[in-house]
């Protein structure tokens, strides 16, 4: 089997581990910088070209698309789908999960637990927007933010109003969410492969930090999920159409709430915290999918 990993850097931990796991299983694995790919879009023989050579003969593609490169990255994934190559996550599922507002709307439609969330365009509607989520303290998030960047905790009404006005002054799209104080700066990352949660960890924010991201000094350790948390994580990934996903949950007074569904979750933190060979489980999943004849063309472009 030949596997292509779409990643900007072969040296990244997740990319290197996936390559290692694939080669250990006896497969040929090639890391491809998707930003250097160009495409021949034709009805009869669609192609992806890399370094002057058409990329042909691949059985599976693992997309590791950066959040800031979603548009072009998903176009490359879509082209592989048109060629009938199996992709661990479809282009549509990646796009759907990357749009934070669309993601929350889909999750809400499926009846999944979410923080109370508000969204508005005009600064004239700030008062109503703050009231929707129950007032301060509240969390303000830029839709384009990643790894905790562009996320602000506003502890008072006036602070919230000032931050919202500032973000909208930059024409930034934002979400306003209730602050789940009982979580105590801790969230849970559930790593899903197929229809299973293969690993889970709790992430605790640094002292005085409400964001639990490891990139911001948070710590992580293995955690046992409750049946409700496991079910919520699996339902969230399924709602997005993702086969490989990281689902972030908070423990609230009214049960688990979904904060984010990530289509390219990092492997380093989860593997170190849990000791689970997540990369190996992804390769095993691909092997079963390809052997069962699943196609990359899922009919949803």
UniProtKB/TrEMBL annotation:
Mg(2+) 1 binds at residues 248, 260. Its EC number is 6.3.2.-. It comes from the Bacteria. One of its GO terms (cellular component) is cytoplasm. Mg(2+) 2 binds at residues 260, 262. It holds the Pfam family Rimk_N. Keywords: ATP-binding, Ligase, Magnesium, Manganese, Metal-binding, Nucleotide-binding, Protein biosynthesis. Mn(2+) 2 binds at residues 260, 262. Mn(2+) 1 binds at residues 248, 260. ATP binds at residues 141, 178-179, 187, 211-213. The keyword Metal-binding applies. Binds 2 magnesium or manganese ions per subunit. GO terms for biological process: SOS response; translation. InterPro entries: ATP-grasp (IPR011761), ATP-grasp_RimK-type (IPR013651), ATP_grasp_subdomain_1 (IPR013815), RimK (IPR023533), Rimk_N (IPR041107), Rp_bS6_RimK/Lys_biosynth_LsyX (IPR004666). One of its GO terms (molecular function) is metal ion binding. Its cofactor is Mn(2+); Mg(2+). In the C-terminal section; belongs to the RimK family. Belongs to the RimK family. PANTHER family: RIBOSOMAL PROTEIN BS6--L-GLUTAMATE LIGASE, RIBOSOMAL PROTEIN S6 MODIFICATION PROTEIN. This is Probable alpha-L-glutamate ligase. It comes from Prochlorothrix hollandica PCC 9006 = CALU 1027. The lineage of its organism: Bacteria, Bacillati, Cyanobacteriota, Cyanophyceae, Prochlorotrichales. The gene is rimK.
């Amino acid at each position: 089997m030949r596997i292509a990993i779409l990643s900007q850097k072969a040296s990244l931990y997740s990319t290197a581990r996936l390559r290692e796991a694939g080669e250990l299983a006896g497969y040929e694995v090639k890391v491809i910088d998707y930003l250097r790919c160009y495409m021949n879009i034709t009805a009869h023989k669609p192609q992806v070209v890399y370094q002057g050579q058409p990329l042909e003969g691949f059985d599976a593609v693992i997309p590791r698309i950066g959040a800031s490169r979603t548009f072009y990255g998903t176009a490359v994934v879509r082209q592989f789908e048109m060629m009938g190559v199996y992709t661990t996550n479809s282009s549509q599922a990646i796009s759907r999960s990357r749009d934070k507002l669309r993601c929350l709307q889909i999750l809400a439609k499926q009846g999944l637990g979410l923080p109370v969330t508000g969204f508005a365009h005009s600064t004239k509607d700030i008062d109503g927007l703050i009231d929707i989520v129950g007032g301060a303290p509240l969390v303000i998030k830029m839709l384009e933010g990643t790894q905790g960047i562009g996320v602000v905790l506003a502890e008072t009404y006036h602070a919230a109003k000032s931050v919202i006005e500032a973000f909208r002054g930059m024409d930034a799209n934002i979400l306003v969410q209730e602050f789940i104080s009982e979580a105590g700066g801790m969230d849970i990352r559930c790593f899903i492969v197929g229809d299973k949660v293969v690993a889970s960890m709790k992430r605790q924010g640094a002292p005085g930090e409400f964001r639990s991201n490891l990139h911001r000094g948070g710590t992580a350790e293995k955690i046992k999920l409750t049946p409700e948390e496991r079910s919520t994580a699996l339902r969230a990934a399924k709602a997005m159409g993702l086969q490989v996903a990281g689902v972030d949950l908070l423990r609230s007074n009214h049960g688990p709430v979904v904060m984010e569904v990530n289509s390219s979750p990092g492997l380093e933190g989860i593997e170190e915290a849990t000791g689970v060979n997540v990369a190996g489980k992804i390769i095993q999943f691909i092997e079963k999918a390809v052997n069962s004849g699943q196609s990359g063309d899922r009919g949803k472009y």
